[in-house]
UniProtKB/TrEMBL annotation:
Organism: Enhydrobacter aerosaccus
UniProt family annotation: Belongs to the ABC transporter superfamily.
Protein name stated in the entry: NitT/TauT family transport system ATP-binding protein
Record Pfam families: ABC_tran
One example GO MF annotation: ATP hydrolysis activity
Matches recorded under PANTHER family: ALIPHATIC SULFONATES IMPORT ATP-BINDING PROTEIN SSUB, TAURINE IMPORT ATP-BINDING PROTEIN-RELATED
Domain of life, per lineage: Bacteria
Residue span(s) of domain ABC transporter: 4-237
Keywords assigned: ATP-binding, Nucleotide-binding, Transport
Xref: PROSITE patterns: ABC_TRANSPORTER_1, ABC_TRANSPORTER_2
Length: 254
């Protein structure tokens, strides 16, 4: 059984200001299997974030269904960890309390929660920064805190919405490498929204190419490339050309 099942999903938003309906997604079907790393790629406004938000349970489909582990998604849950573009850290809490935030909210032994947080702080390479505050961290470090916080709940699915887009090129490439290593060591199912073709081809087991207005899935492209990915290799560039063609079909029709 797929971990995520999206069946016939449509999403319309009411634009109250202009008194019109915006169809963000129309007839989206997608099955995501365990341990797949799915990159959602498509032009701005094609509904990538809307689709991710529906898996996260922040939005409900207008039509169709979204299931995780066979259960209909009706709201957010601990089985789905979300990492946003901005890491949404609590500025008044040190790193370890930000990482352990959901555990601390549940109550219980603070010392035990700190030890649990430490495991994930170490995992994302922030050892020594446990007591730093968000204002003392770089963009990449803040994003690592967000990733550690999402991993700590041991979710079935990690949902990431352009988590590295605000980072400089070098930090982004480093974070991409670290994310792949984490995913390879701990396994799990990832859905990752990106604008970047290279990023999608570097990270994913599959790229889901979306078309715009209303958002639909144009193609699911399996990435049969060895890791670590070599962005200069002929195989990488063949796939890049194919994905670019998929994106361009959309542009030439619009
Ligand atoms: N809450 C909302 N209210 C009204 N319209 C919305 C809302 N959220 C999204 N939309 C519209 O739905 C469409 C899809 O938006 P969405 O943010 O999902 O696209 P996206 O592919 O993630 O875009 P980007 O790559 O620019 O972040 C857009 O036309 C957007 O204006």
């Amino acid at each position: 059984m797929p971990v995520i099942e999206i069946n016939g999903v449509c999403k319309a938003f009411r634009d109250a200001k202009r008194n019109v309906e915006v169809t963000a997604l129309a007839g989206v079907d997608l099955a995501v299997e365990r341990n797949q790393f799915i990159c959602l790629l498509g032009p701005s406004g094609c509904g990538k974030s809307t689709l991710l938000n529906m898996i996260a349970g922040f939005e409900r489909p207008t039509e169709g269904s979204v299931k995780v582990d066979g259960q209909l998604v009706t709201g957010p849950g601990a089985d789905r960890g979300v990492v946003f573009q901005q890491p949404t850290l609590m500025p008044w809490l040190p790193v370890w309390e930000n990482v352990a935030f959901h555990l601390l909210m549940r109550g219980g032994q603070k010392g035990a929660h700190r030890r649990t947080a430490q495991t994930f702080i170490d995992m994302v390479g922030l050892t020594g920064f446990e007591d730093h505050y968000p204002a003392e961290l770089s963009g990449g470090m803040s994003q690592r805190v967000g990733i550690a916080r999402a991993l700590l709940m041991n979710p079935r699915v990690i949902l990431m919405d352009e988590p590295f887009s605000a980072l400089d090129e070098q930090t982004r490439m480093q974070m991409q490498g670290e994310l792949v290593r984490l995913w390879q060591h701990h396994e799990g199912t990832v859905v990752f929204v990106t604008h970047g073709i290279d990023e999608a081809l570097t990270l994913g087991t599959h790229v889901v190419v979306m078309s715009a207005r209303p958002g639909k899935i144009r193609a699911v492209v399996p990435l049969d490339l060895p890791r670590p990915r070599d962005i200069t290799s002929p195989a990488f560039n063949d796939l890049k050309r194919y994905v670019l063609e998929m994106l361009h079909v959309d542009r030439s029709n619009s």
